Structure formats: C-alpha cells, structure tokens
Amino acid sequence: MAVITYRQALHDTLREEMLSDENVFLIGEEIGVFEGSYKITAGLLEEFGEKRVRDTPIAEEGFVGAAVGAAMLGLRPVVELMTINFSLLALDQIVNHAAKIYGMFGGQSNAPMVLRTPGGGGQQLGATHSQNIELYYAFVPGLKVVAPSTPADARALLKASLADNDPVLFLENLALYNTKGEVPDDMPPAEIGRAGVTRTGSDITIIGYSRMATVATQVADQLGEEGISAEVIDLRSLRPLDRETLVESVRKTGCAVIAEDDWLTYGIGAEIAASISDGAFDYLDAPVRRVAAAEVPLPYAKPLERAALPSAESLNAAVRQTLDAVGHRR
Amino acid sequence: MTEIHMPRLSDTMEEGVISTWRKQVGDQINRGDVVADIETDKAVMEMEAYDDGVLEKILIAEGETVPIGVPIGIMGDGSGAAAAAGTSGGGSDGSTGGSATTAASSESGSTETASPDTAAPRSAASTESDADPRERPKASPLARAVAREKGVDLSTVTGTGPGGRIIRVDIEAAAEATTDTESSRQSAPEPQPTERSESHQQSQDLEEIPLSNIRKVTARRLTESKQQAPHFYLTSAVDVTDLVSFRSDLNERLQASGGPKVSVNDLVVKACATALRANPSVNVSFRDEKLFQHNRVHLGVAVALDSGLVVPVIPDADRKSVSEIAAEGKEKAERARDGKLKPDEMSGSTFSVSNLGMFGIEEFSAVINPPEAAILAVGATREEVQVHDGEFVVRKMMRMTLSADHRAVDGAVGAVFMQQLTSLLQDPIRIIA
User: Fold this and answer.
1) Are strands B391-405 and B231-239 parallel, antiparallel or unpaired?
2) Which residues form the Transketolase-like pyrimidine-binding domain (chain A) (predicted)?
3) Is this prediction's ipTM beyond 0.90?
C-alpha cells in the first residue's frame, strides 16, 4: 500500500489500463509533448507513442467527436478536456451524441469513453476557468458522472469508468491534485453509482462530493472533538445517484446538510434534498440545509474568491444551525 | 377588530372551558361587561371585556376547552367585517382543533352575506375540514412520526425548535413527562389497539366521562405528589370525650350570642394551626430540591364537590378564633360548592386537613397536597371501650393520621407535632387559649 497524490493515482491508473488494454488511448490538448496541463499524462507519450497518446488542436468539439466515433467502433478513448469550462465547446458531442448513441440506436452501438476533466475554483483562474458545471452533465440520461475525492477513489473510479460501456464524465478537481492518500496496490474497480459513507455518525448527515467531501470529513472531525457525531457521505457518483445510501443515513440521523462547490439554485444539492424529502420525510427533524458557492461569476481577487466559495467554516456553521434546530444538546 | 382570548385566571391555569357565553353574536359589549363564564382548573370565573364593541363571532362554543391565549371570540364595529377577517386569525396558534372551526363555520352564513368577497374563500376553507393546515401545530416530520408512534397529541406539546416548531426532543420529553399521569391518558388521541377493541366490545357497558378541569388537575397533582413525595404516616387515637362536650358547651354560648356553630373539624383546624405555630418544622414545603419554611400558617380545608375536590384556604388560621375559622370555613365551602371561589382563595395553604368522619370513616391516610409537606386525615368519632386505671370505661375516640413528606419532615418531628395536637384536642380549653 502506497501513499500517493491524487494526480499520481490518475497517472498510474491510466498507464496501467493502457498496458492491459491496447484499445485504450488518450486524446486531448497538450497531453503528449507537454505531458498535460496538470501533468497527469507525464511520460505516456514516450512510453506508448503517438498512436495511443494523441495531441489535438484547440478544437474541443472536434476531438470529442473523434472520440465518440472511435468509441462506437470499438476503441476505449480517454479524452482529457483541459478544464470542464472548455467542455461547453463540446456540449453537442457530449450531450447530443455520446449520451444518446446507445438509446437512440436501439442498443446497436454504444460509446464507451471517458471524459476526464478538472473543475472547481480557488486557483485564481477567473470566472470562466473556475466553474463547477458537472450538473449540466449529471442532468443528462445516457451519461454517467463520477467525482472522486481521494486518490484511492480516483483509481477505483477511473478503472470502473474505463470498464463501463457508457460515456463517463470523470470529474477531477484542481484543488485535489496534490492531496495524498493511501492507495492499495490491488484495488478493485469501484461500483459507479455507489456513495461512500466516509465517516459514520448519529447526530447529523453531511453530504458532499469531490472537494467538498474532503471539507465535510474535516468538519466532521472538528465536530467529533466536541462530541458531535456527524456522518459523512461522499457521493462519488452524481449520476447515477445513490439515493438509497443518502436516505438510509438521514433516516438514522434525522437531519442533513449538503455541501457543494457549485451554485445553490437548481444545484446538485437541490436534487439531493429532494431525494431525502422523498425517501426520508418522516425521519426529518429539520429542513435540509445546503451550503454552496455564492451565486456570482467566481471573482479573480483572492479574498473575494475565498469568500464566494463554501468553506469548512461555513459548513461548520450550517451544521450547528441545523443541530440547534433539532435541539441537539451538546 | 379585537380578538377575545382565553384569559389566564390563575397561576396554575393552562386551559379553560367556556362555561357560558353571556353575550351572543350581535350583542353590544361595553368595557367591563361580563362576556363569558370561564371554568378554570379551580373555579368558574367571570370574564370581563377590556374593550367596547359588538360581538361578531364566537369561535369557541360553550363546553369546549382551549388553552390560554387562544382566541375565543371576535369583536368588531358590528359590520361583520371583523368576523370575516378574523376567521383566518381564529385559533391561530393551532391548539383549538375542530371546535373552533365548527363554531366559526356555524356563524359564517351571516358574515358571508355581509362581505362575500373577503369572507367566502376563508369560510369555505374552514368549513371544508377541521384539519385546516393553517391550524396544524408546526412540527417536523420526524416529530410527527414519533408523536404518532408514542400516541402524543401534538397540540399538547410546546415546540422548542425554530419559530416554535415541535421537534423530536419535544415529543420525547412530552411522552416521558406524561407516561404515568392521568392527563396523558386523556390527551392521547387514540387508545391502544387492544384497548380500542375492548372498548368496542363493551361500548354498551363502558362510557367515557369527559374530565372536568378540577378532576384533571387533581389527577395530575396528586399523582405527582404520590410519585415524588415519599409519604409516611403517623396515626394517633385521640380521646375526644372532653372535646365533644366542650364543643356543645361552646356552641350553646355562641348561639346565645348569635354566633355561628363550631364543628369538631373547626376545632381540629384551630388546634392544627396552633400546633403548627409551635412546630414550625412541619409548616414547610419541599419544592425544586429546596426546603422552604413558612412563617405564616395557612390551613387548607378539603371540601368534596360533585365535580371533584377543592381545598379552600383559611389564611393565618393560628391567629383566628375558632368561631372566625368556623364562619370563614362555612362561607368558603359554600362558595366552593357554587364554583365561585376565587383561585387565590384556594392556593397558598401551608398545611391541609381532610375530614371524612361525617361519612363514618374511622381512619384513613390522605395524599399530600403539594407543595405542602403534610396533611392530616381525620376520622369519625365513636364510642369505644378504653382501659383507665385498670377499669373499662366508655370514651369518645377519634383517629387521625398525619401523612408527611419525608423529604421535608422526619418521623420524630411529625410525631412531636402529633403528640402536641393530640394533647391540645384532649385538653380543649387550650385550643382557644
């Protein structure tokens, strides 16, 4: 068992999958000679050659479309979109083509491809480079959307995504690339659509994914020191969504706070809140509360950017408000 | 528009019954007029109007019970507009249940004609069903689920969540607080399934009697008393031969001067007051883990009514003459029977006397009336054969039992009190000394 970074886990898993299946190939901007904007593909061009590691022009719709075609014909492309913000340029290929191939053509063909892409703010990259728009993809039937928060999950979910016959949007987060964690060598693929209960507790359920799942864990640890027992759920998969685990947890704790890096209105938290209301209404002792980013284009200025994003402090405060509302006596 | 609310008429009052509406819809009300008679936990009180106006709507019908603060009627200028506007406000804290809407809807016909535009939708809503969502207590879904499971009536629970929302801990506390008391059985919305099937079978033989407020309060307080106060009992046999002749003697003299007759109980009350003055450690209360010494002696004298038990108080009984005690006791007992005793005339006693001698009961032990620390149960006087100086003699004997709260009074302290009380009753001239 090794302690490695999230970045390293992605790199190692890609390399391993390329070694074990010659149909797996990488395609994207600057992934070859430049070794990837975030160095996930470092050394792979050298090892696997240009046929397996394809540098492309700045033309997202073009290379995503090429990947869809390749997938339909039996290859397993892994597309790197430099940031999720640029995926908008390929929206037609992703939403209107990749997602619909299996259903629209009566199952005669499918598009087994992985769209790797980092999202998230906090890096002072300005409003157009700091978004969390995974919701756009989680909305679309035919796509799967996964969002690992730890190096181990990154490895297990990337394996599962490559094995899946549906197109998978694989959401990375810039803030997580350098985080470290234990990654077992013989890790089996994850089950897409299964959330993780990363802390068990009885007083409140905190739900997050990607970066906010790690923040949730941090807050749960702080609360634990004060004798508050918070259960943390890391969604891992936004589509399909593991409603069962959410509902089961809230039935146990009676209240929930959802933490998300994206905007509040119509957000993923809204979907989760609705799922909880549907499955655990009679078990709720307080309204489900959501912590999300300020509803503005993310500011460039560091203090403003920090103020706009949800933090451990804002999540902690929301948890306390909810606990107060259910008369939790500390 | 002015809402008339169920008033708080005593410290212990939590809800009241509209005994009689003295005004009807359409009546002019002037400030100070008696609007209704309200039956509290202790008495029937007259409720006076604080404002002038016309009674436009009666929200709570006679015989209905509602918590204090709940609107029971609406006053306006007589146009009916207030009544129409008031429909939504009536019973706004959600505790009135079906009775409010029933009463309101029975009046709605006239108000709708007065101002159909505003009145119609509201009235229609309230006639639809008595489960008007605006009148539901605010409770979390979990609290509702737990309340269903535990059989707790939400309208009896005070919410501690945001905006007064009832949350799970409130239901759990309420369920715990009321598990053993009579009142919980009364407030539980439905009997348990087994009881229900039983009562179904026996519906001919078994009928539920609505609890009077006095009965509810008695049940609650005496249950608390028996559960919380560790009772112990001291019984003495008193030779009242002299007391009885002293009483006839006294009554002859009092009658000659036009005074009231004195009963044996009046003499017992006076003797108790004297003995309490001499034994202050019995004239105490135990409350909230604290012991309180009463520096005045106020005696409660239990009076049985058809509707339950009330205990009028004779303040400063130790400083009053026996004939004063007799007069005051008689007058208060009569008013208690009429339900006209004011709540403050029934509270503040520091010791109580309960006498069942007139029913031939020889000896019994009473339940302490909290927060008092003791109560004296007095039995009947009867002739008994006693041994005096080796001879059988017939004497008049009376047995009395002191129930004392051991948290506040020890056995020997109670025994000394009983000894002095016995000695006073056996040497009655000292009672009036």
Assistant:
1) antiparallel
2) 4-179
3) no
Quick check: B158 contacting A, CB < 8 Å? no
The mean pLDDT value for A52-77 works out to 97
Within this chain, do residues A95 and A234 fall inside the same structural domain, yes or no?
no
List of chain A residues whose C-beta atoms are within 8 Å of the C-beta of residue B161: 285-286, 325-327
Q: Domain for residue A189, yes or no?
A: no
Q: Mark whether A137 and A19 lie in a shared domain.
A: yes
Q: How long a stretch of residues is chain A?
A: 330
Tell me if B373 sits within 8 A of B285, measured CB to CB.
Answer: yes
The domain boundary, picked from A183, A204, A226, lies at A183
Q: What confidence tens digit (pLDDT) does each residue in B20-55 have?
A: 888 888 888 888 888 898 888 777 888 888 888 888
* Nearest-5° Cα angle at B164, B159 to B165: 70
Residue A112 corresponds to which amino acid? Answer: P
Residue whose tokens read 């589509």: A239
Q: Omega before A240 cis (within 30°)? A: yes
> Does B140 sit within 8 Å of A282, measured CB to CB?
no
Q: What is the CATH number of the domain that holds A60?
A: 3.40.50.970
Please indicate, yes or no, if residue A168 is contained in any of the structural domains.
yes
Domain shared by A200 and A163, yes or no: no
Instruction: Please indicate, yes or no, whether the overall pTM of this predicted structure exceeds 0.80.
Output: no
* Average pLDDT value for residue range A204-217: 97
A230 and A93 in one domain?
Answer: no
Confirm if A112 and A164 have CB atoms less than 8 A apart.
yes
Q: Among partner residues B144, B145, B161, which is closest to A326 by beta-carbon distance?
A: B161
